Amino acid sequence: MNEHVNADPAELAKFSELAHRWWDLESEFRPLHEINPLRLAWIDGIAPVADRRVLDVGCGGGILADSMARSGADVLGIDLADKALKVAQLHALEASTSGVKYREVSVEVLAAEQPASFDVVTCMEMLEHVPQPASVVKACADLVKPGGWVFFSTINRNAKAFMLAILGAEYVLGMLPRGTHEYQKFIKPSELAAHCRSAGLDLRHTRGLEHNPLTRRYWLSADTSVNYMFATRKPG
């Protein structure tokens, strides 16, 4: 891995090994499939994606990218895990999803190539897996057009998040493979807000994502103590 690429080789290898399971609804990626309708509805309610050029950063196997394309967006999904991208491309072919393309490229490189090119940028469940999240936020800001929206989701860093997102989800309930997350890489909302301000993005909306492990029900709320999302806008 090029030392200038903002990615952890171990993280890429981890997700590449699981790549063939991205679209298995009973696999480790089941939670992403279950929360995807909530995420998509929240994004679309703030910045309707139909007929818009959308970038999905850290798209993995394409769960969100595919659903945004089906909502009428022209979507580019990018990732550095090549096996996951191949799965995403294969799924798009099998599902006949038009309007979505995938590319193996870092967000920083794409920002240098195509500044201010997208109406909407999404970066979901990705910041907690990279060495320099501020660099990703800055690149996302550079990629969106003036007046466009950038959405982030990640995990708060506190005792509650450690208990639920790591001990609970990975070790007790087995919802995720052990080692999926590293506590020290979690990001407090205040830290992400600072990254956004430094990148020239205005924070407009926040939302928490909650979960009942017994009923497997997810819902959005004002509680950002564990999983949370930001909707930011680049000044016009």
Automatic annotation (TrEMBL):
Keyword entries, A-Z: Methyltransferase, S-adenosyl-L-methionine, Transferase, Ubiquinone biosynthesis
Protein name per UniProt: Ubiquinone biosynthesis O-methyltransferase
Record-listed E.C. numbers: 2.1.1.222, 2.1.1.64
Stored InterPro entries: SAM-dependent_MTases_sf, UbiG_MeTrfase
GO molecular function: 2-polyprenyl-6-hydroxyphenol methylase activity; 3-demethylubiquinol 3-O-methyltransferase activity; polyprenyldihydroxybenzoate methyltransferase activity
Pathway: Cofactor biosynthesis; ubiquinone biosynthesis
Species this chain originates from: Variovorax guangxiensis
Keyword ATP-binding attached: no
Function: O-methyltransferase that catalyzes the 2 O-methylation steps in the ubiquinone biosynthetic pathway.
Entries under Pfam families matching the protein: Methyltransf_23
Similarity annotation: Belongs to the methyltransferase superfamily. UbiG/COQ3 family.
Binding site for S-adenosyl-L-methionine: 39, 58, 79, 124
NCBIfam families: UbiG (TIGR01983)
Reactions this protein catalyses: a 3-demethylubiquinol + S-adenosyl-L-methionine = a ubiquinol + S-adenosyl-L-homocysteine + H(+); a 3-(all-trans-polyprenyl)benzene-1,2-diol + S-adenosyl-L-methionine = a 2-methoxy-6-(all-trans-polyprenyl)phenol + S-adenosyl-L-homocysteine + H(+)
Signal sequence, renumbered to the chain: none
